[in-house]
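Sample 3 of the quickstart, ligand 2-phosphoglycolic acid:
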Amino acid sequence: MRNRFVIGNWKLNGELDANAVLLADLNQKVNRESGKFCAVCVPFVYLAQTQNVLGKSNIGWGAQDISRYVAGAYTGEVSAKMVSEFGCRYAIVGHSERRAMLGDTDAVVAEKFGNAKKAVLTPVLCVGETLDERVAGNTENVVMRQLHAVIETHGVAGLSGAILAYEPVWAIGTGKTATPQEAEAVHAFLRAEIARLDVEIAAAMPILYGGSVKKANAKELFAMSNIDGGLIGGASLVAEEFLGIWQAL
Ligand code: PGA
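Result:
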């Protein structure tokens, strides 16, 4: 059995008072279940608050990004080691919003992936195609390119212990979810692609789906054999929605 995950991605959202309410609610209601993991990835400035509230809970936490650099004269950057000092277990790398708007090329994503692993964080590597790429029939080429950029740098063994997230760009924040069958097809493709290089790593690799997951559609997505949970944006900001998704896992 593969480990299963529901991971929230707060993006550029949050404020101390509202975070306190949301985190306390999750802390109270997320039960411990073997093989299932719940986590929230919060803005850097809220990591200390998150650690304070969730420190002894069943919920993990992480960063939404980390620097491609380790230390030095890089004003405004935050390193993998720094976030690990705040108890982070996870770091999202290669989110499509960063790839599209914030300069994360495949090569940069591979560097960030490596930095996460060196700091003993679990990288959550995001891949996914835009609508134009899907319409042009390029979904598999795009996710393969994004995946292989990491494999070329770190070897297939580098994927061991990481999490992969398939997030079609056209489904993120749009309310338009991939059907369970559409998502499953890409998940199965990604797993087969990894299995060509290492069957055991492929079998153990959690592959999460992200893109307008809500409590109303989570169960049918999570029922697919290659979908091992979800990376949740908008719905992770509403306790009742996020808890509903957790319960669907
Ligand atoms: P969404 O975002 O759930 O708001 O579509 C998912 C993500 O970007 O990780």
